[in-house]
Design goal:
The complex is a heterodimer of chains A (about 290) and B (about 325). Chain A is mainly alpha-helical. In chain A, about 75% of the residues lie in helices and about 5% in strands. Classes of the chains: A mainly alpha (about 290), B mainly alpha (about 325).
Chain lengths: ~290, ~325
């Protein structure tokens, strides 16, 4: 009774952290620029492929591939933002959604073309495999690692946004872009930086997730909806909301799969619909 | 956007509506071309039926998206409801197709009405996510209710009587195509009448500016509920057509793929044009048929690229671009 319950909580937390890493960047960029970037999930896939290919082709150790995935995807997301997205900041939300769904399709074709349709199989280093036993409970080291990474990144993000002047600029730009610009803040640069950070986080999340979620070209289709749920429930423009939404989603998913495997997906969507009907802008959105 | 020539300021409202609704000759050409498929491509009639049905489905979404400005990521819910209704009727003894379609539309419309009561106040992302949620929940529900729907295996043994008791279903899909086309044409006429009515004009007002429309005395909420219900019923009829013409209902009728697909079709063809729904469905399904024959991944690449190009450069989709090009050429020709 206790053991499976603890397992569900543990796995749910780790899954929630992954979802937060992947989706958190989207809620930042959506809050900042009001840009509904569905292709954010493709950034996560790209991060996974960068890490996987570096390990397979170049023999890099797993831990070294994580910063590489962050940097590579951060650069890629800035390139896409400068070349494509910036022209659509003023477009309607539906246009943005359709454009970026088009990009997802292209990214799936691209991933298949470059890396094949088969799932990437990666061997984790020994220090991240196996479990730690605490009494009757076993905790997977890899999930502990994800939890640690997620917690560290959450702290970094919250400290940056709440307590630094950079964070003050970002919060100001979210509230009123023109007013912030007129105070002498280079909003354009701020946006690009935030976009790079959000993309990089997704890349990192993608690299971390390939061991748990699997990685193949259809990754974006499988996890897009989860990312959207996190952003919709959390409310764009709020780190706190994203963290809570991601963890709730992770816990519900793990609990649903364990206790009611037949109706697991149903519960998540019912929860999302209920929350959005109660608060259309998300739990921490502007009311 | 719809400012058509010849309408002077002094014209009465009735005259303006009549001018908007006037039947134009390219429309006759369009429907005759659709009919001529029977003679020109008799070996592709199965695909053609699918195109017509998807076009009708896209038309139902056009009423929402193109004319009212409400997007939905779960419209397959109503398509699937209609399909299962018609399929179950056919399986359990009600073989008459036309009444089966009516019931399919009524069931989908009734569920649409209930859904619209809760989603009428939502906008943008919340609207997208709630419609998506409704679609996915229905998909899951149908998957679980195996005894009723057949689950993953689909609903087998759907038996449909000849149309009007005269036209029996044939192996080439000739009856199926003509039946689907006839129903789609009737539904199209109804939708055309609707969007050119004062009610349709109020919908366009809601699309352009939700906040100002109430000052004209229009109750946004009740209009949104009405059009959502109509759209859901129309989607149900399209789903019922699919079930009757293929005499089978697969779980895929409720899938997210279908919801996303119909949205893409409509945007490619041109939202808010009525004809865009059918043009987009034809473009999408014919391209899919040809491109995914070699490798589905190529299909993904091209559809993605096409979607980006249409969003970036092709406001109004194929129909919008063609209409503008036509107008430009026509004017340059000095016909005015």
């Amino acid at each position: 009774m206790i053991v499976p319950f603890a397992n569900v909580i543990f796995n749910g937390l780790a899954y929630g952290m992954l979802l937060f890493l992947i989706a958190g960047g989207l809620s930042i960029t959506m809050g900042l620029m009001g840009f509904a970037n569905m292709a954010h999930i493709s950034f996560a896939m790209l991060g996974g492929y960068v890490a996987a290919q570096l390990m397979i082709k170049a023999g890099w150790p797993f831990l070294a591939t994580l910063p590489a995935a962050f940097v590579a995807v951060a650069i890629a997301s800035v390139v896409v933002e400068r070349l494509v997205f910036r022209y659509f900041y003023r477009a309607g939300e539906l246009d943005q959604v359709l454009l970026t769904i088009g990009l997802i399709y292209i990214s799936i074709a691209g991933a298949t073309y470059f890396w094949g349709a088969a799932p990437q199989s990666i061997a984790m280093p020994p220090y991240l495999s196996g479990e730690i036993a605490v009494g009757p409970l076993g905790f997977s080291l890899y999930r502990l690692f994800i939890l640690g990474m997620g917690a560290a990144i959450t702290v970094i993000l919250v400290v940056t946004i709440e307590w630094t002047s950079l964070g003050a600029h970002i919060r100001a730009a979210v509230d009123n872009r023109r007013m912030t610009a007129s105070c002498g803040v280079n909003v354009d640069l701020l946006f690009t930086g935030a976009f790079a950070a959000g993309g990089g986080l997704a890349g990192l999340g993608g690299a971390l997730s390939m061991n748990l979620l699997g990685l193949d070209p259809y990754f974006p289709f499988r996890y897009l909806v989860y990312v959207l749920i996190v952003v919709a429930i959390g409310g764009s423009r709020s780190i706190k909301g994203s963290v809570i939404a991601a963890i709730v989603l992770g816990l519900c998913d793990a609990a649903g799969k364990y206790y009611v495997p037949t109706t697991g997906a149903f519960i998540i969507y019912a929860l999302m619909v209920a929350i959005l009907l109660w608060r259309p802008n998300g739990l921490y959105g502007r009311r | 956007m719809v400012s058509r020539a010849m309408v002077t300021e002094a014209a009465s409202p009735r005259a303006i509506f009549a001018e908007h609704e006037r039947w134009r000759w390219p429309e006759t050409v369009f429907w005759l071309a659709a009919l001529s498929v029977v003679y020109l491509f008799p070996e592709y009639l199965t695909l053609a039926s699918q195109v017509v049905i998807s076009g009708l489905f896209a038309l139902s979404l056009d009423l929402l998206l193109g004319y009212t400005g409400m997007a939905s990521l779960g419209h397959a819910a109503f398509f699937g409801l209609g399909a299962y209704t018609a399929g179950l009727l056919g399986k359990h003894g009600w073989h008459e197709p036309l009444s089966g379609l009516v019931v399919a539309g009524l069931v989908a419309g009734a569920v649409g009405l209930v859904c619209s009561l809760v989603i009428a106040r939502l906008q943008s992302i919340a609207l997208l996510m709630v419609t998506l949620g409704i679609g996915v929940m229905l998909h899951e529900g149908a998957n679980q209710a195996q005894s009723l729907t057949g689950g993953d295996d689909g609903l087998q043994g759907v038996d449909i009587a000849p149309v009007l008791g005269l036209f029996d279903w044939d192996i080439f899909g000739r009856t199926a195509f003509l039946y689907a086309l006839a129903i789609a044409f009737l539904c199209f006429l109804a939708a055309r009448r609707l969007v050119h009515s004062p009610f349709g004009l109020s919908l366009r007002g809601i699309k352009e500016n939700t906040k100002r429309v109430p000052s004209l005395g229009i109750k946004v909420r009740s209009r949104v509920i009405a059009i959502f219900t109509i759209s859901a019923a129309l989607a149900g009829v399209a789903g019922g057509l699919l079930a009757q013409t293929t005499q089978f209902v697969g779980l895929e009728v409720l899938s997210f793929d279908r919801s996303a697909g119909v949205l893409i079709m409509l945007v490619l063809g041109g939202a808010g044009t009525l004809y865009g729904a059918f043009v987009g469905a034809a473009l999408f399904m014919i391209a899919k048929d040809f491109l995914s024959a070699s490798d589905p991944v190529y299909w993904y690449f091209w559809i993605g690229l096409l979607l980006c190009v249409v969003v970036a450069f092709g406001k109004g989709g194929v129909v919008g671009v063609t209409t503008r090009a036509w107008a430009a050429i026509f004017r340059r020709g000095g016909a005015k």
